[in-house]
Every structure is written in structure tokens, then in C-alpha cells.
Amino acid sequence: MSRLAAKFEELAKTGRKALIPFITAGDPNPEFTVPMMHAMVDAGVDVIELGVPFSDPMADGPVIQRASERALAHKMSLKRTLAIAMEFRKTNQHTPVVLMGYLNPIEAMGYENFANAAQRAEVDGVLTVDLPPEEGQECRELLKARDIDPIFLLAPNSSDERIKKMDEIGSGYIYYVSLKGVTGAGHLNVADVEDKLKQIRANTSLPIGIGFGVKDAETAKTVSVLGDGVVVGSALISKIEANLDDLARAKNEICELLASMRQAMDERGTRS
Amino acid sequence: MNMTEKYNMPDERGHFGPYGGMFVAETLIPPIQELDAAYQHYLNDPDFIAELDTDLQYYVGRPSPLYHAERWSRELGGAQIYLKREDLNHTGSHKINNTVGQALLAKRMGKTRIIAETGAGQHGVATATVAARLGLECVVYMGAVDVARQSLNVYRMKLLGATVVAVESGSKTLKDALNEALRDWVTNVDNTFYIIGTVAGPHPYPAMVRDFQAIIGREAKQQCLEATGRLPDALVACVGGGSNAIGLFYPFIEDKSVKLIGVEAAGDGVSTGRHSAPLCAGRPGVLHGNRTYLMADDDGEISETHSISAGLDYPGVGPEHAWLKDTGRAQYVNITDNEALDGFYALTRMEGIIPALESSHAMAYTMKLAPTMGKDEIIIVNLSGRGDKDMQTMAKREGIEL
Ligand SMILES: Cc1ncc(COP(=O)(O)O)c(C=O)c1O
């Protein structure tokens, strides 16, 4: 069983929901990321989404765009992101790591080279924003052959047919983008998410992580009731951006925010 | 590679061989499928076609003339040069052929808000123009660098009632404007129609924009036959995203005797790395929804581009050009900033026609090509736009304050 499947199974047994932070590899510098990942694990996260910096992050809002720009200024790349994942794995065998990024760096490396490198780095899942199922068969099969889960997105306007497709070809979990927009956008509408989750659940039994619009302990708690996992990105990266001159403080603030989310989510979890 | 006699690209999912396709985030899949369905439907709807034809005739001013540049041909001493006068269209370039078509589609689809990206501002102006006419809200994304170098067009767009957003991310040019337009689209998919200005983006845009621009080649073919009794020997067009080029080439693809030549922007020279010539010096990759030739580094990060002409300053190119290059059906060459300026002055002084800096690249290549051909041979060059928008850039180069 993949590390992701095992993690969601373990969480389900104890009635808890996954807390899934997103940070961009190499933001604000390459040395920051591995210690930050370990600190997030200590703060109570279950899965880490590691963003691969890209020059043209079309689906991201300004906060994550700037994270990419800061990382790229340090020559961060897919290769170096994989090195970061490998470094993290040396001292953490239990926390799944999912790479999240855009297709062109993978195209440049070559699908097979990438799949091999991801396997060596013991990466658990790969989410490629601009690689929908129709175009992604070759890459997906190479990953699956190496027990790496291809993670797919679903959106508020996804049809039943689309959900079934993701169920069929995806594994690990499905990432539900809770609003129409880019990362870091506005506020999610809880009633809408609740309705959509019913439709999604009716068409797949994969765990559902919900992201976009999760900002604080309050929203994390609300969203955790609806899905199986809560993804938080821009709110964390904003802490880095606000403390570029004091990265120890950035790290502390990120851990505090994650710990508060963990606590809020677990209160809810034990009650239900 | 083998080309079948019948050219029938792209396939159903928008592939031109390995190129093209639909590489977008999940939120954009439904609107793109909706657009594809609408386009397939109206493409064969006599009502739609009639309305489009009327607009092209009375609003755009088509057909545009095919003009025999006799003096320039004589001066160059070789082939007879004919200019396809897209510069005479309403708003001053070929861009309006496409915006008229897409705006009609938007209207039929019940969309109330139009967005667009623009480089030189010609597509932005053409979009703002049709939006004004149809009473649709219009937002145009333009890189901050381009806002500065094409300020005249920024003013035109504002006059027409559009909101112009200066994009400050990345290299602050056309590719970043496209990123920002895509971000707007995912946020406002329900009421918004994205009018892409060139044959790039996810399927169906490359095919749809080509079909709207193919009027250029259809007219040119007929006009050439009428004027000379035969087909041309070569077609020359500048290539940014590639819409004016494919518009001219497409109706000639099956006419194997006609050479198709696309001219990319070499900026300071392809060997300097400061250029915008992905077909000549790039490699395949995926950006903005399709697989095509791109300018990117070894890690797949998109490179900054350079060209004197904002409309050619783009690291990618329409996927159909990638296919035509690989199959050998079309040939792609490049022209530096300085050579383009020679083309600009030559046409201005020889024929009394001031071309856009984009089109000047095609003129410059024609100056190299024509003398190598016989006097009885024919070149059709796409004069994709007029140079009014470039007056400030040119005056500044000459040290003149306007
Ligand atoms: C006059 C003119 N020609 C050519 C271009 C390049 O676009 P394309 O390659 O799509 O024709 C532009 C783009 O702004 C333009 O304004």
C-alpha cells in the first residue's frame, strides 16, 4: 500500500482529518525548506505538498507566484526540489510527500527520467496542475508503475463524468479546489462546498483533500468536517513573505498557525 | 515525415501530431469544452457565417487589397512582391478578423464579459473595439513593459471603454499577460469569454483562431489568381504566436508548389540568446495549454524573450507551426531587430506604406528572398499591420521627442 493510502486509512480509523500544508521548495532560499518540513511535521501535519517552482504559474495567485519567483532567484528547479524531498526522507519515513507543480519542468526532464528520480527521492504523489487526464496517460502510467500516486484536481464546475474519471485513474487522494479562482483567492462558500462534496462522494471513494481559501483555524475546522483533508498554502507562504528578514520567526508563525489548525480540526474530529 | 495529400489537422482533441492539445487546470476544462462545442456548432451554422461575413465586409472593410509593390520589386530586382494589406483593416491589423469572430461567438454563448491578453496592443484594441460595439464589458491584460512601449494603443483601448490591467509579474510582457488572463478566466468562468489573440492556448483556440484568420489566405489566393493567373511561389509572414502567418498559409497548405515561410524575431541575434525565435532556436515543451516549441532553459523554466516588436515578444508559438516545421511543409527563418528596421524604412520609402514593426520582419526577409528569385516569380507578403502604433518607438530611436 502506498504511503498516502496508508496515511488516509490510519486517519480514518481514528476519525481524524489530514492536515496538508503546501510550501514552495526553495522559498525563500533552498536551505529553509527541509527544516521547515520537519517542523511542520512536529506541528502536526500529515502530508506535505511541496511546490515545484515554475516561471509561469498560471493557476496561482500572487502569493504563490512570488514564492516561485523567490525560489527561482536561487536557481531552484525540479531537480533540486527532488533533492529536497530526498533529504527530508532521510530522517522521516512516515510523512507522505506530494510534488505539486506544472508540466513543463517534467517535460524538460523527460517523463521516464522524472518518474525514476521521483522514485529515488521516495516521493509519494505527483499533482501536475496543467496535465489533465486526457493528456496525461503516459506520465501517469510511469508513475503508477513505481507506486507513486497521480493526484488529480476537481473543481466546482466538474461534472459527474469528470469525477468518475478521476476516481478511475487517480489514487492517493483527490484535491478539491473549493472555489473558482487561483490559489489564495477570496473566501470559500461552505454551503457550496458541502453540496459539491455530496456529488463527489457519490462518484468516488478516494479521500478528498479540500484546498483554496483555507486561511485560519476556523476555516480549517469547517472544511475538515466536509472532506478528508485540508490543504493550506497561501496563508503559510504569507508568513514567509512577511518575515523575509527574520526567517526563524517565519518558521515559528507557520508552525503556530498549523498547530492551531490541528487543534481546531481534532476538537471537531473527536466529537463526531 | 509524410504529409497526406489532404490536410486535416488538428485531430478531435486538438493535436497536431505531438503538438497542441488541452493542457489546462481542471476548472478550465468545462468552459473549454463548452467553447469547443459552440464553435463546432456555429462553424456550420449558415446564420452565424452570414453575420460574420457581413461584419467582415462592412465593419472590418474586407476584402483587403492584394497590392503589387512594383517599385520595390523593381528595386530589389527579383520576384514580384505582392502585399496582403491587412494594415488597411479597421483598427489597423489582422487581429480584428479573429476578434470579430470570437465576439460573435461570445454573444451567441450569452457571455457578458470579454477578456484578452495583448502584446503590441493591436489585439487589445481589436478586442476593445468589438466589445464596445456589442456593449460587452472588456478587460485587457498587458505586460507593464508593453504598456510603456505601446502607450498609444493603451490610450485607444481606454477610449473604447476597456479596462487595461498592467501585468507586473514575471517578464512583464505578452506571456505574463496571457498568464494573468488565464487567472481571470478561472475566476470568472461563468460569465466571461476569453478572446485569445493568436493561434496559441488550449484547443480549440489554435484551430478556431486559424479558421477566423484563414480569410486572409482565401482572399489572397483568389486575388493572386485574378491578378496573375497563377498561384504564388512563396508566402512570407512574421510569426509571433503565428496567427497572421497561419491565416495566410492555411488555404495554401495543399498547394505543394507554394513555399510557406514564417519569419521569427531574432532580436539581438539568435546566437545572443536575446531573441523570440522558438521555432528556430527552441525546443518542444508545454505552456499556456498546448505543446509546442518554446524558449526554455534545461530545467523547463520559460526564458525571457526579446524583440523590438512587442507583438513578436513571446516564448512560444502556435502548435500548428510546430507541426508544419517538423513535417517540412513550412520553413522558419529569423530576422534581427536591426534587419527589421531596414524592412521598415524600405517599405516606407519605396512604397509609401509604414508597416508595423512586427510586419517589418516579414518585409526584411522579403528583401533577402526576392533578389534570389526570377522576375516572373511571385511572393505574397502579409502586411499584418500598420506602423502608427510604433511611431513613438521609432522616433525615440531617432532621438526625436514627439
Ligand atoms: C501587426 C501585427 N503583426 C503580427 C503580430 C504577431 O501576432 P501573430 O503571430 O499571431 O500574427 C502582431 C501581434 O501583436 C501584430 O500586432
Structure, explained:
The complex is a heterodimer of chains A (272) and B (402). Chain A is of the alpha/beta class. Helix content of chain A is 52%, strand content 14%. Chain A has a nine-stranded parallel sheet with strand order 5-4-3-2-1-9-8-7-6. Chain A is globular and about 45 Å long. Chain B is α/β, with parallel strands linked by helices and 402 residues long. Helices cover 43% and strands 18% of the residues of chain B. In chain B, strand 1 and strand 2 form a beta hairpin. At the A-B interface, helix 3, helix 5 and strand 6 of A face helix 1, helix 8 and strand 11 of B. The site of pyridoxal-5'-phosphate has 21 residues of chain B, from helix 5, helix 11 and helix 15.
Largest sheet of chain B: 6 strands, mixed
Strands of chain B, total number: 14
CATH structural architecture of chain A: Alpha-Beta Barrel
Average pLDDT taken over every residue of chain B: 96
The multimeric state of the shown protein is heterodimer
Class based on secondary structure composition and strand pairing of chain A:
alpha/beta
Work out the radius of gyration of chain B.
19 Å
Question: If you consult CATH, what is the topology of chain A?
Answer: TIM Barrel
Number of helices of chain A: 12
- Please give the domain count of chain A: 1
CATH secondary-structure class of chain A: Alpha Beta
Give the termini distance of chain B in whole angstroms: 52 Å
- The percentage of residues in β strands of chain B lies in 15-25%
What about the largest sheet of chain A?
9 strands, parallel
Count, helices of chain B? 16
Give unreliable regions of chain A as ranges: none
The rounded distance between the terminal residues' Cα atoms of chain A is 27 Å
Helix % of chain A is: 40-55%
Largest interface by residue count? A-B, 44 and 37 residues
| Derived structural class of chain B | alpha/beta
Rounded to the nearest angstrom, the radius of gyration of chain A is: 17 Å
